[in-house]
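2024-03-11 09:14:02 INFO receiving multi-entity request
2024-03-11 09:14:02 INFO entity count = two
2024-03-11 09:14:03 INFO echoing inputs for audit
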Amino acid sequence: MRGGGLRIYALIYLLFLYAPILLLPLFAFNSSQIIAFPLAGFSTRWFEELVTVDALHEAVLNSLFIAVVSAVLATLLGICAARTAARYRFRGKGPVLGFIMLPLVLPEIIVAVALLTLILQLGLDLSVWSVIAAHVLICVPFSIAILQSAFQNLDASLEEAAVDLGETRWSTFRLITLPLVMPGIISSLLISFTISLDEFIIAFFLSGTDPTLPVYLWGLLRFPSSLPVVMALGTILVVLSILLITTAEFFRRRGLARTGATDSGGFI
Amino acid sequence: MSGPIVALKGVHKSYGDYHALRGIDLEIGAGEFFSLLGPSGCGKTTLLRTIAGFEDASEGRVLLDGRDMAGVPANRRPTNMVFQTYAVFPHLSVAENVGFGLRRSQMPKPERARAVEAMLEQVGLGGLGRRAAHALSGGQRQRVALARALILKPKVLLLDEPLSALDRKLREQMQHELRSLQRQVGITFILVTHDQEEALIMSDRIAVMFEGLIAQLATPEDIYNRPVDRRVAEFIGVMNLLRAEIRRNGSGIEAEIEGLGTVPIEARQVPGGLTGAATAGLRPETLTVLYEGQPDRGRVTHGNIEEETYYGDMTYYGVRLDGTDRPVTISMRNLPGRDILDPGTRTRVAWSPEALIFFP
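2024-03-11 09:21:47 INFO inference complete, emitting structure
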């Protein structure tokens, strides 16, 4: 059979990628407290235990709050920067954009330490807001990269046509530009949300007494007895991620179909 | 007659060191079909965008219907534009596209819907109002763009190379449709095009532009038959250019032309009383290849056929006249019983001095 070797390679590749993730639900529903084969029996006690831990709920809420606010702020900033980059020419445009994109290649540990120093020097308290500030910083480059292609694919005469037909610049943006770059905006929100949600290093340095979910999970790992709970939590997160990405992709594709645009490769 | 609907007075436009427009004076009357014709980079699109309000003139004034447009933005000018890419809003339906400009009018909704339907009917898109705009063909998009602009009854409709993206057959059809639509609605159309044939077919008047200046402003017939200089002559259609020498001969003028000999000419053929070295121009259709056995008529010269290009209804011959170093183009209708002559054939060429135009 032609391509047989490649087929096997792809199979092994996928197995390597997803087999570990499949272990999560396996042990999450295992009644034994020890994470090892053979499995003991079916149980939902770890999920029940999850419900009772208040610290966990707080961490989840912190993470969601940080991720949502970071995603919205990063995307708003991304929209402004990407539109400017796509439409206007000005002196120093290259260096300015380069500096905005820099956090993309900057190790997060450096951002984390630098921000920690800054915040302490300014005498500010560590809170969810310090994490949000840092997450916006690292999400904006991704947002710009996604939105820049959305704005560049937008024919400039569409906006001119709307102005020509009597609209102001603002109503043109609302009626024409925004709906047409919406798939890009959704992608940007989604990727920023995901980056913020599972970011650990910065959150570890800056979250202070409001741990995010990754920071809380890391804390749990010190107690072997809580490992099955981590498994249960991981299972829920996997299911939620799949749901989230599927819905977002559905809306993105619908948006593309409505405008008849060619799919230039979205988030997935 | 009232004043011009569009008046440009000394319009300059520069981007840094680059001068896109270098002093345009132009008046366009109400109901005129006017074309701005020129090669790419001649400033025709910049001029159109200056009238629309997308560009500000660096110097000079733009008046629409007698009103100075300085400081009036594009959305408050009595002009509408059909863009080269049509710029049909892909996320709206055909009817929403056409009714887009009416959003801001006081017109009640049912009346608006009727206006949209009537407009669609007029541009040949009746019944397609609910269709998604992105599902339309190029020609249909073109019509949506037209309908969307015309429904606002602008004083001037600006068209930026609207037909260049269409295939040839559709383009020719749209040329005639546009022309008759313009006569129907009586709105002034200003068309930007680099296609000289399109300008000749559609326009009442044409401004031929080169390097930010209007080289000639005239009717299509004048532009074709009496181009003011070599650039215009060569840009519009095909023009054979031959070296010539113009001399006064007693009370008249005569010209010695390479390959054609010395002939008396009339003063009207020579711009500005030109004498001495000049260039003579002859359109391909004013020369005739004489077949064997055909009698001489008018003036006759000799040459060799070097190229032959078949166009179906016409054949274009490249004939090198004796005593010249490059061939002239001669167009011949392909009538029944008339053979296509092969390259290498020796032939007689008939021509007439009245068809000559001279340039410095």
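2024-03-11 09:21:48 INFO post-check: Chain A has one domain: 40-259.
2024-03-11 09:21:48 INFO post-check: The domain at 40-259 of chain A is CATH 1.10.3720.10 (MetI-like fold).
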